């Protein structure tokens, strides 16, 4: 599935999945919604992949640690598996 990355402000509320992982380099993958909106990155730190949330304000300015998945900032993964990343980041619960 090919998406066109978008770097835009997303309103509060549910994120459209499944999430897509786009390679940036060997240790960074950009995380985008199904319609292309950038919501963060997976960064390999040592042997662990960590999700780094990213949001954008109404003027398009970056908000590191922000955005609709801010509560999942620093969630850890053993591998960058798109299905697992999508399921865990988009899980609804307490």
What features would you describe in this structure?
The chain has one helix at 82-90; strands spanning 20-25, 28-32, 38-45, 48-56, 62-64, 76-77. The protein is globular and about 35 Å long. Helices cover 10% and strands 35% of the residues. Strands 1, 2, 3, 4, 5 and 6 form a six-stranded antiparallel β-sheet that branches. It has 94 residues and is mainly β. The model has no long low-confidence stretch (mean pLDDT 92). The protein starts with 19 loop residues before the first strand and ends with a helix.
Write a concise keyword list for the protein shown above.
mainly beta; 10% helix; single chain; globular; 94 residues; six-stranded antiparallel β-sheet
For the largest beta-sheet, the strand count, sense and barrel status come to:
6 strands, antiparallel
**E-strand count:** 6
Helix content: under 10%
State the end-to-end distance.
Answer: 31 Å
Helix/strand-derived class? mainly beta
User: Helical region count?
Assistant: 1
Mean pLDDT over the residues? 92
User: What proportion strand?
Assistant: 35-45%
SSE ordering: EEEEEEH
Catalogue the unreliable spans.
Answer: none
Q: Compute the gyration radius: what is it?
A: 12 Å
What best-fitting shape do the alpha-carbon axes yield?
globular
Care to give the gist of this entry?
By secondary structure, the chain is mainly beta. The protein has 1 helix and 6 strands.
List the helices and strands and how they pair.
Elements lengths: L19 E6 L2 E5 L5 E8 L2 E9 L5 E3 L11 E2 L4 H9 L4
Antiparallel strand pairs: 1-2, 2-3, 3-4, 4-5, 4-6
